[in-house]
Design goal:
Order of helices and strands: EEHEHEHEHEHEEE
Pfam family, one: Cons_hypoth95
GO molecular function, one term: 16S rRNA (guanine(966)-N(2))-methyltransferase activity
Number of strands: 9
Oligomer: single chain
CATH topology: Rossmann fold
Number of domains: 1
Shape: globular
CATH class: Alpha Beta
Strand order of the largest sheet: 5-4-3-6-7-9-8
Protein name: Ribosomal RNA small subunit methyltransferase D
Keywords: Methyltransferase, Transferase
Distance between the termini: 50 Å
CATH superfamily: Vaccinia Virus protein VP39
Radius of gyration: 15 Å
Helix content: 25-40%
Largest sheet: 7 strands, mixed
EC number: 2.1.1.171
């Protein structure tokens, strides 16, 4: 069973699609959000949850005080379930689900206000992560001091961080590795 770990909706169960997604384990979400809470980047944040699946990561952020979450998911069944989960746990007012491919969403240009936290949990065998990270590093997507977290299989190795994102550590849990980066000031 997948459930929200902590915050306003802590303990509430989430539905997951029967196939096609790999929800982040409760143990990994708990460790991830403990680090993010310690860094002070969740409460009041604008959060972008890419490859959202059932919405577990974005909903965890909203439960812990994020001001707004944009969850992007291409699979229609998963996107509908993400919307349903947000309503079921009482967070629909802070979570907007966009049912489209991540690349298409990013091609639409940066939002009116930049994001403070970006969570990327792509399918482990998905290619194109370098292009997605490069698009996020373009002006307008990320606030100063924003944190970007990529969840991948341990065997995948560190992402290729584009200019504008500085690696800030990693943590491995079984077959899952979380990679962290923060925005950096570009000069010149």
């Amino acid at each position: 069973m997948t459930r929200i770990v902590a915050g306003a909706a802590g303990g509430r169960a989430l539905k997951v699609p029967p196939t096609g997604t790999r929800p982040t384990s409760e143990r990994v979400r708990e460790a991830l959000f403990s680090r993010l809470d310690h860094l002070g980047v969740v409460r009041g944040a604008r959060v972008l949850d890419l490859y959202a699946g059932s919405g577990a990561l974005g909903l965890e952020a909203a439960s812990r005080g994020a001001a707004e979450v944009v969850a992007v998911e291409a699979a229609k069944v998963a996107a509908a379930l993400c919307r349903s989960n947000a309503a079921q746990v009482g967070l629909a007012d802070r979570v907007r689900v966009v049912a489209t491919r991540v690349e298409r969403y990013l091609d639409g240009g940066p939002p009116g206000s930049p994001f403070d936290l970006v969570l990327l949990d792509p399918p482990y065998d998905l290619g194109g992560l370098d292009e997605v990270l490069a698009a996020l590093a373009a002006p307008g997507w990320l606030a100063p001091g924003a944190v970007v977290v990529v969840e991948q299989a341990r065997r995948s190795g560190e992402p290729s961080w584009p200019e504008g994102l500085t690696p800030d550590g990693e943590k491995t849990y079984g077959d899952t590795t979380l990679w962290f980066a923060t925005t950096t000031e570009l000069t010149g």
